Structure formats: C-alpha cells, structure tokens
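Response to reviewer comment R2.3. The reviewers asked that we include at least one raw input/output pair. We reproduce the pair for Serpin domain-containing protein here without editing.
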Amino acid sequence: MKRTTFLLVCGVALSFCQAQSETTDEETGAEEEHVELFTTPTTKMGAATSDFGYNLFRILASRDTTTNVFLAPISVSAVLTHLSLGGSERAQSQLFRALRYHTLQDPQLHNTLKDLLASVKVPGKGLSTAARIYLARRLRLKQDFFTLVEQQYGVRPKALMGGTKDMKDINDWVTQETGGKVQNFLTKALPRNSGLNAVSAAYFKGKWVTRFGESGVLENFQVEGGSPVRMPMMKQDNYPVKMGADSDLSCTIAQILLQDDVSMFIFLPDEVTSNMTLLEESLTAEFVQDLSMTLLPAQVSFTLPTLRFSYFTDLLPLLGDLGLSEWLDDPDLEKISAQPTKLGSVNHKVVMEMAPEGNQYPSATSPPSHLSLRVDRPFLYLIRDEASGALLLIGRVVNPKDLSI
Ligand SMILES: *[C@@H]1O[C@H](CO)[C@@H](O)[C@H](O)[C@H]1NC(C)=O
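Raw output as returned:
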C-alpha cells in the first residue's frame, strides 16, 4: 500500500489531506478494491479502459523520457476490442488481459463498451473517435467477422486492395469520422505485406466551464536543458480549480472543469524536468479517483499554454510490453482468416484544441487570488470523463512547440 500526502497551500492557510491508493497484485488476480465510482458495469469498464490507457502511456513515455507523448487510449481499446472478435478463445483472453477486461467478469462486455463509447462521444463532451480494422484482401477473409464487428460496434472492418489508394481510403475515413479534424492520418503507405492494420484516432475540442480573459499572450515556457520557448498562453485571475500538492511526487495537481461533466487534470512537477517517471508509475484509475477526492477548491491566477496539439505514433512496438508478445507471434485470428495473419501496424493519431471561451465568467468581486498556477514548464495532463471515470486523453508535454499544430 502506498500512502501519499497532499498539501494545499491556499493564501497563508495550510491544509492537509490524505489519500490512499491501493496497489493490488494484478498477477495473482487478487481481489481489487474499487472506489464508489467503479460500481456499475459502465464505470467498471471506464476503469478498465483507463488502466489500459495508463499502462500504454507509461510504456510509451518510458521509451524516451525526453519527448512529448500524447494518446487517446479509449480509441485504442476500441480497435483492439474489434480485433478480439476475430480471435480464438486463447487470443481473446490474451487481448482481454492486456485491455484489463479480465477483471470485469462482464458477460455483456461488448455491449458495455459500446455504451461507454456512446456516452463519452455525446456531442457536448467534444470527443470524436475513429477505430477500424483494415485487412489485406489476399487473406481470404471470413465475412462473418465483418458482420460481427459491424453489428456490435457499428463500424465495418475494411479489406484493402494493397495499392496506393489504400492510404487515401484510410485517411479519408479518419477525417470523416472526426468531423474533418484529424487529417493526413497516414503520411506514408502501409508496408506492402502487412496483413492486418489497426487504425485509431481521436479529436478532442475541450470547452472550459470558466472562460479565460486573455489568450495568445506570448510567454516563456521552460524546457529542460534548453532555452525557453515562446508559447501563446491563456491567462485568468480568480480562476476556480481544485488543487493540491503531492510531496512524494513533488508536483502540484489541479483539476479544471470542462463542460458536460469532463475535467482536465494537470500534474505540474516542482522542478523543470521532463522525467516524470515516478508520477507516471503512480497513474491508475483508482489513484486518479482517490486523488480527485483530496483536491480542494481554490481560486488561482492561472496561466496555461494554448493547447492545440497533434501527435501520431505506431503503437505496435509497445504491445509486447503490454504482455502481448506471445499473442503477436501467433495472433490466432481464426475468425478473420484461415491463413496465418499478423498485425502490421497499430497507427494512432490524436488532435486536441482548447478554446479560451467558457460558459461562465470567473468571479469579479473577490480580490485577485494570491495563489498562482503557472503551467510554464513540462507537465502531464489528462482528460477524464467524470460520469464514467474513463480516461479520454493523456499527454506529457516537455516542449509544447513540438506538439503544436
Ligand atoms: C528518471 O527518474 C527516475 C525516478 O526518479 C530515475 O530512476 C531515472 O534514472 C530517471 N531517468 C533519467 C533518464 O534521468
């Protein structure tokens, strides 16, 4: 068990609060303790997809501790779940373990995921996702698989011709699914011999509850081991947040409300460092939930870079570290084709924007807050759907210039 102390510095007053986070033994299948949020099938599914997302993020982030990282894990969960419908029982249980579904014991798993995806994609929340399996036509594909995925998730896998038109096909589809916002998904053609490709993408247009008065003010953003970069910043006094500080992780944590029951968590290390290993290792659905209960309301003088980010990566090299090496060697996708098939790519692209507008003004009457929250150095952030607890996006920003659209 890990005990973490949060310290909130609010003007001159100090208040202490504590959160406990249970680390459970996943390998022995020990009974996991669930907080109240994780009690319905949808919120349990929310926790499973989040934990998968944190694992994926951790693996990508640890590959190189000096780079930006950005993912929309829920769309990756979706596409790998589509794939699981084509697997043997063994393949399915390997995938379910990586996706954290093995903890759910949910006989209606696919319907639950479908409901969760629908609930986080309602228009007000600002998230659109695309997830689809693309298969080489030469594999003599079993049509039942196409029908099964389409009936369950409303997206029909697609057979590729193996020519130059494939890239345009995929890119057009992703653009269409994300309302025109995720463009040029692939910038080079898929490898000629790749049999099976998982495509996932997301666009997030975040809408603050409380608007920012200033936006686009150019200020310095510190970068580890380099000179600061000039970034457009959003600024506002008396901005309502929930806040705390974690002395073990040496960072300030803030939760900012977005519209339609979504929130952003910002983890801001005390030092200018891109190495957030300790923090990354703490992230689980339960940790973030426990944390959110300890944060206290505060009004801050808030400065935040304009978040207009885009990121693309092939996640295939990470799947081995998710416990899928054995599966990758022999994916056993017997319901897709009788011929042996292998996964050729797991391309993923995510784009986000946050507009300075909000539907409320910060309080004008109170004197300017003494507490300031200046996000002007490397930070980690995540976007969570509060109703389901599902992690929608997660990113580490070490140099916002390199992520900016
Ligand atoms: C990053 O931080 C961790 C934990 O504080 C440390 O063990 C590791 O050596 C650091 N990595 C680098 C590349 O500095």
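Residues 1-35 have pLDDT under 50 and may be disordered. The chain has two domains: 2-23+209-307+357-403, 71-206+309-352. Further pairs are available on request from the corresponding author.
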